[in-house]
Design goal:
alpha+beta, Beta Polymerase, domain 2, 7-stranded mixed β-sheet, 11 strands, about 10% strand, binds adenosine-5'-triphosphate, tRNA nucleotidyltransferase
């Protein structure tokens, strides 16, 4: 009779028949093994919201890894386990991936640090989660199949359209939840519950203690929702930007950002765009440059600030900038609203050199410094439209070769 619960209908609607039947089967195996097993996290929320979700997260009150191995024994497939975390991924014969973990409690030795874990029960496992809407579980043991555990009124918050943390220290324990809160609020068009908003506001300074890697990763997830501009505004209302970068994005910055993220949708670039313009922008952004490409970008942008191309011809701009990467020039042009630089960049990208290395070799030149110098000169002449045809280029090359000292 339990199977007539409305949530079971929603599960049936949203899961493939195969997956639904697999869950029934897993429930039976859990019964045999005398463990309680639950679907958990985003998928439970999404059944209720009737939104598609394929991520099957299962928790067992018992040994998650042993249970995954039991599934493999009875149903085939493969298990990859992480002993340290008590987690396993079971890949079925049909290549479905299911995550299976041991119910656990997390406890924090220090605010914003990574948590310690120990095995526990389902209630404890739900209690360590981020928001009420993400803290529901659906039991799938045979007799309780589809029994919803909702200790924290997640269903009610779905009705109320609220993102609500489970306890007052939540954001202090893990300040990245502030960014997660904004992510779910924007995805579902919910609001942060009043108290949750206040606690987020108070916890924002803690974000400075979160590693750049974690912060960028969480921001990347946010950015994947394609709501970056709203997210930036929302995070601004929480004071995140003034805390991290001593700067609030104004209307101008937002306009730039909307252009830049289309070409460069990386969270580092978003941070950079927000931080840019103040005297110490490179100092505040530096901790977030985790890959050499981003470090180089900072160095090149600093160099760009010393170059003035206002009254220069395209060729003399090319002389100064040919070693700068396209994306740095693009970014700098957008950040400083430099139309001339954008034009140069566009021309440079469209430039097709009229001579190739092979043409030079045919004229008896050997690859080396002269070689690349000649190609650079040709690029300059083409940018200034002094040379426009292959014939002109060949004639120019012949004169050049004649001028070269014989060796
Ligand atoms: P999505 O729909 O984006 O996959 P999700 O709810 O499945 O969202 P995940 O980031 O995949 O989110 O995390 C799975 C579950 O783990 C969440 O539903 C939440 O219960 C819990 N969780 C993840 N990150 C945290 C965190 N920083 N603090 C507390 N709980 C978290």
């Amino acid at each position: 009779q339990d199977n007539e619960q409305p949530i079971v209908l929603l599960m049936k609607q949203q899961l493939s028949k195969k997956m639904y039947e697999l869950l029934l089967e897993i429930g039976s195996i859990a019964d045999q093994q005398s463990v309680k097993i639950y679907l958990i996290g985003g998928i439970v929320r999404d059944f209720i919201l009737q939104r598609p979700n394929e991520d099957i997260d299962l928790v067992v009150e018992g040994d998650g890894i042993a249970f995954a191995n039991q599934l493999k024994k009875q149903l085939g497939g493969n298990v990859k386990s992480h002993e340290k975390f008590g987690t396993a991924t079971w890949t079925t014969e049909e290549n479905h991936k299911l995550d299976i973990v041991t119910c656990r409690t997390e406890y924090y030795d220090a605010p914003a640090a990574l948590p310690n874990v120990r095995a526990s029960n389902i209630r404890e496992d739900l209690r360590r989660r981020d928001f009420t809407i993400n803290a529901m579980a659906l039991q799938i043991n045979k007799r309780q199949f589809g029994k919803l555990l909702d200790f924290f009124q997640g269903q009610e918050d779905i009705q109320l359209r609220k993102i609500r943390i489970l306890h007052t220290l939540s954001f202090i324990e893990d300040p990245t939840r502030i960014i997660r809160a904004v992510r779910f609020a924007l995805r579902f068009q919910y609001e942060l519950a009043e108290h949750t908003f206040e606690l987020a506001l108070n916890a924002v300074p803690m974000l400075k203690q979160v590693s750049a890697k974690r912060l960028l990763r969480e921001f990347e997830l946010l950015q994947k929702e394609n709501v970056t501009l709203d997210a930036v505004t929302c995070l601004q209302s929480l004071g995140i930007w003034s805390t991290l970068f001593h700067r609030e994005p104004n209307e101008h910055t937002m306009k730039k950002l909307s252009t830049i993220i289309k070409e460069m949708p990386h969270p580092f670039i978003t941070f950079l765009t927000i931080a840019y313009g103040q005297k110490d922008w490179h100092v505040v952004i530096k901790p977030y440059a985790l890959i050499s490409e981003h470090n180089q970008m900072i160095e090149q942008l600093i160099k760009m600030e010393q170059i003035d191309i206002k009254n220069e011809s395209l060729s003399s701009i090319h002389d100064q900038l040919h070693l700068f990467q396209d994306d740095v020039l693009y970014l700098f042009a957008q950040l400083t609203n430099d139309q001339k630089l954008l034009t140069y960049l566009q021309k440079r990208k469209q430039l097709n050199l009229l001579l190739s290395g092979k043409d030079l070799i045919d004229k008896g030149l050997n690859p080396g410094p002269d070689f690349s110098d000649l190609l650079h000169q040709l690029a300059c002449l083409q940018l200034d439209e002094i040379i426009q045809t292959k014939d002109d280029a060949v004639t120019w090359l012949e004169n050049k070769v004649a001028e070269l000292p014989l060796d």
